[in-house]
Amino acid sequence: MSQSKPPINWLPAIVLTATPIAALILIPWYAMQHDFSTAAWVLMVVFLYMNGLGITAGYHRLWAHKAYEAHWSVQIILMLWGTAAIQNSILNWASGHRTHHRFVDDVDKDPYSAKRGFWFSHIGWMLRDYPSGTPDYSNAPDLLKNKVVMFQHKHYLALVLLMNFAVPMLIGYLINDFWGGVLLVGLLRLVLSHHFTFFINSLAHMWGKQPYTDENTARDNFWIALLTYGEGYHNFHHIFQYDYRNGVKWWQFDPTKWLILALSWVGLASNLKRIPNFTIRKAELLMQFKRAQQQLEQKSSKLPHVDIEALKQRIALEYDAFVATMNEWGKLKEEWYAEKKQAVMQKWEDASFKTRFNEMEYRLKMQNKRMQLLMQQMMLPQVTTS
Q: Among 158, 165, 230, 301, which is 20 to 30 Å from 278 by CA?
């Protein structure tokens, strides 16, 4: 990594510096002289959420990862609300994000590598012309062919001005609180939208749990998910990036997932990609085995030799059962493909294969629970599963 500082990227540097300063000065000053209307506060929250979903459901899950397909009308709406967030065009954002996933944590190639520190990954990477942030559309041929994406890319500045000046001023006029529309719906909403999204690049790589993989810095964090419309389940996302869900458990807060699912119910979204539950449980178990082994090594000098050996044997038995299930799964998949190829049976969802696959998935679920109990007995950090 080069130690010399690249030149300042003046436009984002000015926007990202001036907007929070303006918000900190103008909003309290105006509030001391006048009252903001309730409608302005409510619409600020509504617009903030629409901005966020434009980024998460649009820029991120639709265009960057192609986790689902959306009707052209939905694409236009998501494009407009994403534009209002002022986080660059879809083409630049999605292409850069694909680079982030390909080179995650690489200090030279990841555009916002968390290993370069909180400041860099949160905002610093946008303030200078770092080589890792240089646009390269070779990873986005699909976006170059998308009419909505390219229309926005071509007319980005005009759309930004429309969504961030014209719309808030119109809202302020309609609710009879012009400056409430400008300062709350326009300015405060934008600042909050920026930093809530930036938390995904920074805090979500530094604070939280790693139930699926520790091969990168991404974390799952409920509190970040609350601020980022479900994007806080980042450890899951980095190992299963093409899933339309980030909060994969039914109880996890992921309004972006709920929006996409609701759109599919009314025919406005399709081809929603989901990682099989078996694959997810496999990743969870592998992490549990890895952590159990690490903790055993750490505690080997503190526990009696007999207890250590007994724990090692129990873990070995669980691992043997896991390997056996994996082998059986592989053979069943081969058998299914062979049957499907020969067209001997109907779709596997309607055949006995479904029952056998579900049985193995249930087997992993029960093994997850046994490993949790075993780790509790060892007083190890627990990975919560459903």
A: 230
